[in-house]
Design goal:
Layout: H1 9-19, E1 25-30, H2 38-52, E2 55-60, H3 64-76, E3 81-84, H4 88-92, H5 94-103, E4 108-110, H6 113-117, E5 122-123, H7 128-147
Parallel strand pairs: 1-2, 1-3, 3-4, 4-5
Helix pairs in contact: 1-2, 3-5
Length: 158
């Protein structure tokens, strides 16, 4: 089971476009070290932007310190909104990202619900808590099958 959903980036871009339709340039923060298909992901984001009639600029950050530089570069380019792709670096730097976007009044969409629970504007994707529950449930069911038991789980997801 994969927790990271790189195929949802185009949808995040579409949602940001709906939220701020007059913005012509949307920035994308991408951790190219983490995303195994970063080139494909970039191509899909550019295709989605063309379909929406919007321009995107993808900046890369693979460390916590590089996040500040990447956001500053997007602000210099006059990006009016931000799509933050999935990355352990970005998740671990959640508070820093939230402070940067708030300080600069930059509307942003994030991959994980945990960002919005901490004060971010919006997210579209997985909840790490629910994903962990599914992972534990699948593990328990697999153990039950190996041991001959038919174990049922309630993940609490609806």
């Amino acid at each position: 089971m994969s927790v990271f959903t790189s195929d949802l980036e185009a949808k995040r871009l579409e949602l940001m476009h709906e939220l701020v339709p007059k913005i012509t340039l949307i920035g994308v923060l991408l951790d190219s070290r983490f995303q195994s298909g970063a080139d494909l992901q970039s191509a899909e984001l550019h295709a989605a932007a063309r379909k929406l009639g919007r321009e995107i600029r993808i900046v890369h950050a693979s460390t916590e310190n590089a996040i500040d530089e990447a956001v500053a570069a997007l602000l210099d380019m006059r990006a009016g909104a931000l799509v933050v792709t999935g990355s352990p670096v970005f998740l671990n730097s959640r508070d820093r990202l939230l402070a940067l976007t708030a300080r600069h009044g930059l509307p942003a969409i994030y991959e994980n619900r945990e960002f919005t629970m901490a004060g971010g504007l919006m997210s579209y994707g997985t909840s790490l808590v629910i994903s962990l529950k599914f992972w534990r449930c699948n593990r328990a069911q697999l153990r039950g099958r190996i041991g001959g038991a038919n174990e049922q789980c309630d993940t609490g997801a609806s």
